[in-house]
User: Fold these one by one.
Assistant:
Number 1:
Amino acid sequence: MKFTCTNCGKPLKTTEQAYFCMPVPPRGFTELQAWLKLNNAKPYCLNCLQIVQSRKNNTN
Ligand SMILES: [Zn+2]
């Protein structure tokens, strides 16, 4: 399963830290992979996470 950053499209390496914007899985993290697909979870690299957060702060 490969991930790319939702904002900048940068490929996320397997050991790289990333953030996923998704609902918390109801059964914990045991079915996380299926849950990610089901909810079309959006991964962000660290740089873009900061951008997304600052955007949210600006709109509030
Ligand atoms: Zn990014």
Number 2:
Amino acid sequence: MKPYISVVVKPTLFCNTDCKHCYHTPEERVPGRMSHETLERLIRMVSEEYESAWFIWHGGEPLTMPMSFFKDAIELQEEHFGKGSFRYGNTVQTNGLQLNRRFMAYCRSKAINVGVSYEGPFNNVLREGDVSKALSALSSKENKYSVSATICRETALHQREIYEHFRGDGTNVSFSPVIPAGCARCNGTVPDPDEYIRGSIEVFDEWLHDSEHDVPLIPHYLYILNYLGDPMPADCAHTSCLTKWLCVNPNGDIYPCAKACPEEFLMGNINTVGSIDEAFRSEGFRRILLGSVKRREKCASCPIFSYCNGGCSMDAYHECGLEENGGDSCRIFREVFSHVSSEIQYILDNQPDMSGYNRFVRDAIVGKLINPGTVSL
Ligand SMILES: C[S@@+](CC[C@H](N)C(=O)[O-])C[C@H]1O[C@@H](n2cnc3c(N)ncnc32)[C@H](O)[C@@H]1O
Ligand code: SF4
Ligand code: SF4
């Protein structure tokens, strides 16, 4: 058995709203749902080939599916992985418009993480509808979720304000830029890379010296762990995700990534492949792998290659071509990671009083000092 895989499941591509930047076009966001048979086959095959798996329920909007779908999925996981076996975990990624107390209570009872796509005070820049209404109706026990903020041209320089909006409630927040795919290909929502870099460094500097709030800042915290020698699979763009991630569409089509992945990388269909391993031996997977290897060869002289691993293949594909580096995501990672790592190296070299630093940074650094390894740029 292989050790671990992350599986993004899109139970439907239908959505109850119409975000300006969505990499799924309105023509793709049509009704239609994953059948019980497809769901069962997927969960069974993953359980037979992997020691453990993390399922991310995505879409379209997953909460346009009835709650019975999620109950069915969890029952299938309990049956195939073993109830209480710690071999599986779940995250539901939602726009939050249909979140309610009943669903949150169910998630709590089954230890399902909930991620809400939400930019706080800037939510209406990209999105329609008032998610704050649904969130404020949750009780204090039920309002445990993390936030994914997708940053566009208008919000690039407001990342610090978004972090400050959420940190008081202890809500974890992650930031990522709009990529030029689907609706965002040509509507001006992609951020200016220099502004994104400035905004990203500003929010990091605020968080680094924020000793009062106990929340991680993503992706910066993952960059710290990566620099200290402990890269996390959640940082899929910089941990050679190919072979470690899968995305399954409502009809069972398998892709290597959840972001607007074109048909040329189709890896087969869950209802017809004999195993997950067979999907990874498909022509579609070979194509994305070969293109990514060519891009990585061009990265070989980059001083941070060992931390970046050539970045996200789908970002590169949409920015400048699968085989090319140098697009916005490459520039953003180079600048932001270099800033983060130089701050961490300063702490390692000078061992200053850590009481004014964020708790997550303190813990990561203390772990490193107790168990040192080589850190060099
Ligand atoms: C495609 S949605 C699907 C799940 C759910 N409907 C939601 O919005 O959370 C998942 C995430 O992708 C992000 N996203 C959509 N289009 C994007 C783009 N062009 N670039 C970067 N992120 C994008 C959304 O903001 C959202 O956080
Ligand atoms: S980002 Fe999510 S909520 Fe927004 S249109 Fe796309 S699928 Fe729907
Ligand atoms: S930062 Fe850019 S050039 Fe350097 S390894 Fe990453 S993708 Fe390649």
